[in-house]
Amino acid sequence: LMPKDFQVCITSYEMCLIEKAALKKFAFQYIIIDEAHRIKNENSMLSQIVRVFKSRNRLLITGTPLQNNLHELWALLNFLLPDVFSSAEDFDSWFSSQGGDQDSVIQQLHKVLRPFLLRRIKSDVEKSLLPKKEINLYV
Description:
Elements: H1 13-18, H2 20-23, E1 27-34, H3 45-52, E2 54-61, H4 70-80, H5 88-96, H6 102-113, H7 122-125
Parallel strand pairs: 1-2
């Protein structure tokens, strides 16, 4: 890959792992990651590699931003804004300091996520689609 030879680079996670040295040389305008839950573990090789890539803007796309615990959410937010969400310990302790009051934790979480999360449900966005029809084909 040579700088300025392309405007868009679409790749897979596997190619990021293989071509990390080449991709690290670029300063991207955008890094857009689909299936972003794959980088929720900040210690994974993939997560560490994509964090090194330089970009002006970052966008994560996932249907499951929160799967197991809040720490995984921190890993995603840290990828988006490492200067703002720099400390996992501070993030974890901030939410655990809410005690056992789940409503308070959820309210705080909504406040934190409001600027970063855009949630779209098919029923809210697309009104003209017919209901899904499933057909089983037996072979």
